[in-house]
Amino acid sequence: MAKKRVVPLWFNKVTKLVLRTPLIHRVVSHNIMLLTYTGRKTGKVYTIPVSYTKHGNAVTMFTNHNWSKNLIDKVPVTLRLQGRQLEAALDFITTDVEQITPVLLEHLRNKPADARIHKVTYDDTGKPKADEVRRAAGNVRMIMLRLV
Questions:
Q1: How confident is the prediction along the chain (148 residues), in pLDDT tens digits per residue?
Q2: Domain count, the chain
Q3: Backbone φ and ψ of 13, nearest 5°
Q4: Is 1 part of a structural domain of the chain?
Q5: Which ranges of the chain does DSSP label H, i.e. alpha helix?
Q6: How far apart are CA 47 and CA 77, in angstroms?
Q7: Residue 100 in domain
Q8: In angstroms, what CA-CA distances link 132 with 1, 105, 115?
Q9: Domain of 68: which CATH number?
């Protein structure tokens, strides 16, 4: 399922720096957070910027990269979310297109910058094209974390 990198590594490094900087993080922290997790095989700690949607104490994100395999049930992760360090735990991961499609559609309505990553375009009314969202849903994992 892992795909060619869409976002260059230098961009991730700059984004991490911005998200860790007081006050400046506000430029991007409503769309991007830092996710810190431990590799299940290596034990190494990784921190990556990811786009997210937050509803109450649930945080949803989408990826086509294998790092999500490290988010094992009940293993805590740390989020730097809108300037705050928060603990979270895996609620669920799915590759079910029927589950992912409506959630990804809503995500792209609210985060149009992510459309390029998912190769989704918008119709004349400004809505993500449903057939493209469904195709994109078949290429990602949807991850939901619960704040603890």
A1: 455 556 666 777 777 777 777 767 666 667 889 999 999 889 999 999 999 999 999 999 999 988 998 988 778 899 999 989 999 999 999 999 999 999 999 999 999 999 999 999 999 999 999 999 999 999 999 999 999 8
A2: 1
A3: -65, -45
A4: no
A5: 9-20, 97-110, 115-118, 130-137
A6: 10
A7: yes
A8: 18, 10, 10
A9: 2.30.110.10
Position 88 in a domain = yes
Sequence-distant (6+) residues with CB within 8 A of 64 are 1, 2, 3, 139, 140, 141
Integer Cα distance of 116 and 147 in angstroms: 28
From 1, 38, 35, 41, select the one nearest 15 (Cα to Cα): 35
Q: In what order do the strands lie in the sheet with 45-51?
A: 45-51, 32-38, 77-81, 84-94, 141-147, 58-63, 53-55
SS3 35: strand
What's the token pair of residue 107? 């995500």
